[in-house]
């Protein structure tokens, strides 16, 4: 089992910044990827950003140039630096970890989510 614990959400004014963290613990071994998703009220969960096993990091068009994902492998921690926040960024942000085996996702884990509210 893998546990993901997010932190860093809160209320911020438009144009402000926040940094989310996601600490992973448990049986993490072999190949795994991590990313951030979000779900706004009345909408489906969507990908925000994701670090693949190889290749370039993926960002949703709506956050390119404003959000930056990073990963500290030694600490098994994922970060999301969010800048120039907009009201439409308001959502619950979820940390995701996928364990890959033979080129497919064998196990998928989610954090409990952290609320980000952008409002004046």
Question: Which helices and strands occur, and which strands form pairs?
Answer:
Layout: E1 2-7, E2 10-12, E3 18-26, E4 31-39, E5 46-51, E6 58-59, E7 67-72, E8 77-82, E9 91-101, E10 104-110, E11 114-118
Parallel strand pairs: 2-11
Antiparallel strand pairs: 1-3, 3-8, 4-5, 4-9, 5-6, 7-8, 9-10, 9-11
Give structural notes.
This protein has 120 residues and is mainly β. The chain is 0% helix and 58% strand. The protein contains no helices and 11 strands. Strands 2, 4, 5, 6, 9, 10 and 11 form a 7-stranded mixed β-sheet that branches. A 4-stranded antiparallel β-sheet has the order 1-3-8-7, with no helix packed on it. A hairpin with a 6-residue loop joins strand 5 and strand 6 (58-59). The protein is globular, with a radius of gyration of 14 Å. The model has no long low-confidence stretch (mean pLDDT 94).
Q: What fraction of residues sit in β-strands? A: over 45%
**Main β-sheet, in a few words?**
7 strands, mixed
**Kindly, what is the distance between the CA atoms of the first and last residues, rounded to a whole number of angstroms?**
40 Å
**Form type:** globular
Average residue pLDDT: 94
Q: H/E order of the elements?
A: EEEEEEEEEEE
Q: Count of DSSP helices?
A: 0
Low-confidence stretches: none
User: What class, by secondary structure content?
Assistant: mainly beta
> Which bin fits the share of residues in helices?
under 10%
Task: Count the beta strands.
Answer: 11
Summarize the structure.
This protein is mainly β and 120 residues long. It is built from no helices and eleven strands.
């Amino acid at each position: 089992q893998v546990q993901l614990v997010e932190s860093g959400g809160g209320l911020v004014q438009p144009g402000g910044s926040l940094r989310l963290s996601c600490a992973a613990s448990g049986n993490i071994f072999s190949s795994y990827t991590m990313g951030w998703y979000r779900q706004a009220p009345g909408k489906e969960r969507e990908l925000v950003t994701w670090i693949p096993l190889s290749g370039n990091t993926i960002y949703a068009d709506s956050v390119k140039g404003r959000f930056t994902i990073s990963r500290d492998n030694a600490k098994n921690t994922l970060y999301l630096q969010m800048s120039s926040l907009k009201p439409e960024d308001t959502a619950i942000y979820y940390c995701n970890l996928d364990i890959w085996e033979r080129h497919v996702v064998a196990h998928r884990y989610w954090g409990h989510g952290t609320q980000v509210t952008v409002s004046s």
